Amino acid sequence: MRIVDKDINKKQAKERITILVTEDLKDRWQDFTKKSNYSTLSKFIREAVEFYIKYSSKPNPVNTISKLSHNLKGPLTAIKGFSHLLIENYKDQLDWDVLTKIKEVFDQSLNLEEIIKKALDNYKSEKTEYDLLIVDDDSSTNKVLIDYFRLKGYTCKYTGSGAEMFEELKLNKPKVILLDIILPDISGYEICKRIKADDRYNDIIVFYITAVTANEVNSNIKETMADGYFLKPFNFSEFERIFEYF
Predict the structure, then answer these.
(1) Same domain for 26 and 45?
(2) Is 91's pLDDT higher than 90?
């Protein structure tokens, strides 16, 4: 299929891009453009690409909230601890006005700590249902998989480590997890064992996505209770095996 921009603007150089797709995918795109009142298929593809670029550049909300909490709690802990230390150990040696100010700092640190806790609790209460969670620290892998499953009509999220994944599970429970084996913090094997041993999550379908050998993965499937695996580089037709779980 060839995308041709019919509006030739002499003032702006344009590049013709050719995209090869299956007839089935082409028909789906064309049906969508008609239903959505797009004038041309090329216009639909341009807007879709622009939307994807903008969307994928946004920070992962799970990561953002975790970092915000860490950045606030670190200095707050120091302020709270130091002010409490001064009050307990030097209250008889400090001027009353100074002691009162320190006590106010300590009380305000307690109030701020409670505000942060409530804000985080409110965020965690906002659950978002989706189909699939991808756990991989390689951003290109995440983007390719998310793009593939969204084209198939499924909703996705991703995290880049085991710790982030477990934080995400506290908020939302996906139907399927695609789990890399080699992660920066926790082995995918260990993560899968924890998931399958937890009554809250053991009904989640877990497939490994990995570049390690098939022999190694097969030797760990039974022990970790994973539901299967996909080897990198992917044969995307193999992912159809998991569609029945959505």
Answers:
(1) yes
(2) no
Q: Is the pTM of this model over 0.70?
A: no
CB atoms within 10 A of CB 207: 21
Q: Are residues 213 and 135 in the same domain?
A: yes
Whether residue 117 sits in one domain with residue 202: no
Instruction: Kindly state whether residues 155 and 213 are assigned to the same domain.
Output: yes
CA distance 99 to 104: 9
Q: What confidence category does residue 61 fall into, taking pLDDT thresholds of 50, 70 and 90?
A: low
DSSP H or E segment with residue 74: helix 61-90
Residues 142 and 240 in one domain: yes
Which residues span the domain enclosing 141?
Answer: 128-245
DSSP string for 173-227: --SEEEEESS-SSS-HHHHHHHHHH-TTTTTSEEEEEESS-HHHHHHHHHHHT--
Side chain identity at residue 189, one-letter code: Y
Local structure of residue 7 (DSSP, 8 states): S
Q: Say how many domains are in the chain.
A: 3
The closest alpha carbon to 198, from 220, 166, 176, 171, belongs to 166
